[in-house]
UniProtKB/TrEMBL annotation:
<dbReference type="InterPro" id="IPR016143">
    <property type="entry name" value="Citrate_synth-like_sm_a-sub"/>
</dbReference>
<comment type="pathway">
    <text>Carbohydrate metabolism; tricarboxylic acid cycle.</text>
</comment>
<dbReference type="GO" id="GO:0036440">
    <property type="term" value="F:citrate synthase activity"/>
</dbReference>
<dbReference type="Pfam" id="PF00285">
    <property type="entry name" value="Citrate_synt"/>
</dbReference>
<dbReference type="InterPro" id="IPR036969">
    <property type="entry name" value="Citrate_synthase_sf"/>
</dbReference>
<dbReference type="InterPro" id="IPR016142">
    <property type="entry name" value="Citrate_synth-like_lrg_a-sub"/>
</dbReference>
<keyword id="KW-0456">Lyase</keyword>
<protein>
    <recommendedName>
        <fullName>citrate synthase (unknown stereospecificity)</fullName>
        <ecNumber>2.3.3.16</ecNumber>
    </recommendedName>
</protein>
<dbReference type="GO" id="GO:0016829">
    <property type="term" value="F:lyase activity"/>
</dbReference>
<keyword id="KW-0808">Transferase</keyword>
<dbReference type="GO" id="GO:0005975">
    <property type="term" value="P:carbohydrate metabolic process"/>
</dbReference>
<dbReference type="GO" id="GO:0006099">
    <property type="term" value="P:tricarboxylic acid cycle"/>
</dbReference>
<dbReference type="InterPro" id="IPR002020">
    <property type="entry name" value="Citrate_synthase"/>
</dbReference>
<dbReference type="GO" id="GO:0005829">
    <property type="term" value="C:cytosol"/>
</dbReference>
<comment type="similarity">
    <text>Belongs to the citrate synthase family.</text>
</comment>
Length: 273
């Protein structure tokens, strides 16, 4: 903002700016240099980091978006469909309703896992391990600490894919092909290897957690990892609403509850001791 009293304030931005005959975005001419030249995934990465990603980074980033776009009739999808049933004049409300359900159980795991891995790496003494044995030892320390504090490790376990999330090996493979397996993915893989010996059971590394590790290795802001999951899910919710238009199920979901409710006596809230 200008320091001279009476001057118009200025608000600097490296993002979109418009003049009478031109629009710029990230320092490029939007019409000539971006439209038809830059894919949406690449542009989303560029907007968040203000640096153009390398092709390999774009491939990993777009693989993450694909992995998180849609998982069927999850609470976020059902909420979007029911909201659209209630307010068909407000598609933005339906999409927003679905996105608001992105929390610690659905979608939020992506950010939670990235932050968790970052914290473990930041607390590690002596820098990052040099080999797989070193990563395994760091992972053992982290898993033991989580068990002692009764903390669940974000990204470990899945309610459906109990024998392995099919997205996980594919994301690791794509990152490896592009030379982008960094410390977060390396630590997460090590957690996958060593946790059975400490927890006494084997849990899969889920796709949402792997996405968080991959995004963190791309250097994206940890504070925005959930936002990228929401970006991906927006496309999925549009697909859910498009299918709702063709093959509606929201009314059946609503009626299955409305016509099958059972009246019970009031039960006052009993606060925990």
């Amino acid at each position: 903002m200008s320091e001279h009293p009476g001057d118009r304030p200025e608000y600097p931005t490296a993002l979109g700016a418009s003049s009478v005959d031109r629009i710029t975005l990230l320092g490029r001419d939007l019409a000539a240099d971006v439209m038809g030249e830059v894919g949406f995934g690449e542009l989303a990465f560029w907007l968040a980091t203000q640096r153009r990603p390398a092709p390999g980074e774009t491939r990993v980033f777009e693989a993450v978006l694909a992995a998180l776009a849609d998982h069927g009739f999850t609470p976020t999808a059902i909420t979007a469909r029911l909201t659209y049933l209630s307010a068909p004049d407000s598609v933005q409300g339906a999409i927003a309703a679905g996105l608001l359900g992105g929390g610690s159980r659905f979608l939020g795991v992506t950010e939670d896992c990235g932050r968790y891995l970052h914290d473990v790496l930041a607390a590690a003494e002596g820098g990052h391990p040099a080999d797989e044995a070193g990563w395994d030892e760091l992972a053992r320390t982290a898993v033991r600490a989580a068990r002692e504090t009764r903390r669940l490790i974000p990204g470990l376990g899945h309610h459906v894919h109990k024998q392995g999330d099919p997205r996980t090996p594919r994301l690791f493979a794509i990152a490896a092909e592009e030379g982008l397996v960094g410390p977060h993915l390396s630590l997460f893989a090590a957690i996958g290897r060593v946790h059975p010996e400490i927890l006494g059971r084997t849990l899969p590394l889920n796709g949402a957690g792997t996405c968080g590790a991959a995004l963190a290795d791309l250097g994206l802001p940890l504070e925005l990892l959930r936002a990228f999951a929401l970006l991906a899910r927006t496309a999925g919710l549009i697909g859910q609403l498009a299918e709702e238009l063709r093959e509606p199920v929201a009314r059946d979901i609503f009626l299955s509850v409305d016509l099958n409710n059972r009246a019970v006596p009031p039960r006052p809230y009993d606060p925990p001791a």
